[in-house]
Amino acid sequence: MNRLLVTGGAGFIGSNFVHHVIEHTDATVTVLDKLTYAASRESLAVLPDDRVSLVVGDVADAAVVGPLVAEHDAVVHFAAESHNDNSLNDPSPFVQTNLIGTFTILEAVRKAGTRLHHISTDEVYGDLELDAPERFTEATPYNPSSPYSSTKAGSDLLVRAWVRSFGVQATISNCSNNYGPWQHIEKFIPRQITNVIDGGRPKLYGAGLNVRDWIHADDHSSAVLRILQQGRIGETYLVGADGEQNNLDVVRMILRHFGRPEDDFDHVNDRAGHDLRYAIDSTKLRTELGWEPRFSDFEKGLADTIQWYVDHEAWWRPHKDTVEATYAAQGQ
Ligand code: NAD
Ligand code: TDX
User: Fold this and answer.
1) Which ligand places an atom closest to the C-alpha of 34?
2) Residue 123 is among the residues annotated as catalytic for this protein
3) pTM surpassing 0.90?
4) 3-178+216-239 CATH choice from 3.50.30.60, 2.60.40.1640, 1.10.730.10, 3.40.50.720
5) How far, in Å, are 47, 106, 138, 163 from residue 15 at the CA level?
6) Taking CA atoms, which of 80, 173, 266, 318 is between 20 and 30 Å from 230?
């Protein structure tokens, strides 16, 4: 697999994956990205021109996708609308990109016979009770809650059907919440870090007891590359790093890091349909493919991420007022 097509490669996790591929393989990478509000060309800027190129285009545009897919050995499909709160305000781009976009990719790989790895989320499984002993596995039934997670669930089902009905050579991974550099400040962790940098207060939805299973984006990338290289066709692999934390504890860690009082935050309106808890059992990936995460200390990974946002204020500053105005209009 020397020529990779990475959709959504200018986004938070896609760009991390492109860096990972350049560092750990000899492959060349074409990024196909529409450059929505969530994209960042800067995240790709330091990569070598002779190994990474960018095509600006829409994954739902068959005229762009078809010829590009035919020129590559494998497609890694990250492109998506990714933010739950946005999907509650306007589901339409989520249906278009996550469903029609994935359908367009599937038809192109079917025609060209190209290997596909589809990137998905643990949110397709719905949520767990706080005290439930079980975690999500590859056998957990789909039960998505939001327009975002339902379009991701639908995209996974399309991939499964194209594998079974048409023999498409695809794998799927469902990962838990990622954190790390280059994450858009609309998302929970960077929003709170940048609020505190600005002397403001973190904003917790509801009581703040919702649990997310955090994984560093570098670990997500190493898992995706491993599945692309060694995963069994037609299989789904759950990706997680045993990183469960409730939102309140994460906010307290961020405040502590900056030497601020631990109760210096606001409770704001809860998210409609807010999933309570996600938790991943990644035994299959670990035992079958020998993958292990590198970041096992969440507070240390968070501290590095905080420092990155301190050092990269010029990158996020232009977006801060717009993001906060949108949240303020929702009482969040
Ligand atoms: P992101 O919003 O940061 O980036 C998405 C990228 O896709 C952007 O560069 C955007 O320009 C591009 N894009 C959007 N619509 C497009 C279109 N129609 N055509 C081409 N490009 C388009 O998202 P992210 O957080 O990096 O998530 C990437 C993938 O990983 C998504 O599929 C998401 O569902 C999945 N995922 C994310 C997380 C997480 O915690 N962020 C966890 C599990 C899975
Ligand atoms: O200001 C906030 N306050 C708050 O309490 C924001 C933005 C969020 N939250 C809560 C909601 C969630 O319980 O924090 C948690 C994390 O929120 P998000 O960063 O919006 O992530 P989540 O909705 O869990 O989804 C993320 O993980 C799974 C990604 O955005 C998805 O793309 C991925 O599929």
Assistant:
1) 1
2) yes
3) yes
4) 3.40.50.720
5) 10, 22, 26, 27
6) 80
